[in-house]
Fold this sequence. Notes:
There is one protein chain. The chain has 259 residues and is of the alpha/beta class. The chain has two domains: 4-198, Alpha-Beta Complex (2-enoyl-CoA Hydratase, Chain A, domain 1), CATH 3.90.226.10; 202-248, Lyase 2-enoyl-coa Hydratase, Chain  A, domain 2 (Orthogonal Bundle). The protein has eleven helices and ten strands. The strands form two sheets. Strands 1-2-3-5-7-10 form a six-stranded mixed beta sheet, sandwiched between helices. Helix 1 packs parallel to helix 3 and helix 4 crosses helix 5. The structure holds acetoacetyl-coenzyme A. Acetoacetyl-coenzyme A is lined by residues 22-23, 25, 62-67, 84, 105, 107-109, 112, 131-132, 135, 139-141, 143.
Amino acid sequence: MENVLFEKRGHAALITIARPKALNALNSETLKELNEALDLISADSDIYCAIITGAGEKAFVAGADISEMKDMNVFEARNFGLLGNKVFRKIELLSIPVIAAVNGFALGGGCELALSCDIRIASENAKFGQPEVGLGITPGFGGTQRLARTVGVPKAKEMIYAGSNINSEEAYRVGLVNRVVPSDKLMDEVFAVANKIAANAPIAVQLCKTAINRGIQADIDTGLNFETEVFAECFASQDQKDAMEAFVEKRKVERFNNK
Length: 259
Ligand code: CAA
């Protein structure tokens, strides 16, 4: 892969969007490579948490690639939108939690990429925004849908209609990011969260993700029924047996085996 780096550190996978010449902007090639990296994660049952970040200190991702979009016709634009939405939905539906480590500009497709992750941790210099209307287009990789679901309709409408950026402090205030950390501590903090997640029973964590994501789109009774099903399913796992046995024997379970 040319524009996407993939590495494993323990039970965590790190995906880095690395197109420094364009502030990590997402062209079709990069989206396809990101898709490949997600497939590597899906195929590896030893990965319990993933992190997505951008190379360098200036940008997470500065958006979809404007140079590539400039001359697109309606048909090509639809395919580009479909590609971005397909890849970002795959992130959202990945069985394991995904953390966005937002290290600078997260604009347009960059903000949308962060929104498709489960948790967003931002550096102090991060900037979020959906500037698309200033380019004569709407957000195309989920911004109109996920931003409104994350920060609420009024704030999302203001950000999208005005196309103005918000800094990390405001992003925290409106609930767009989980926390803000000094830039030089970002990856340490993100890995600390990833490792904490990875130290818990993987099957239970993954079922939590599915239950939250499905339930949030459904009425409360459907959501609660789904929760009952995943709760029960945990009792078919060895990790549940080991953890509860350890508890009653007043010891800590040594490690979970994802079984
Ligand atoms: N697409 C293509 N190239 C981009 C880019 C993008 N989204 N963002 C930055 N670049 C390129 C610049 O063209 C520049 O290239 P050159 O050195 O070859 O000229 C290089 O990255 C560095 O950028 P700047 O010189 O502009 O850096 P800056 O510090 O002056 O400004 C910035 C930084 C404010 C992020 C500015 O680059 C910018 O406004 N970028 C565009 C942000 C944007 O509008 N994103 C939304 C895109 S539309 C979208 O994402 C649609 C969707 O939902 C699918």
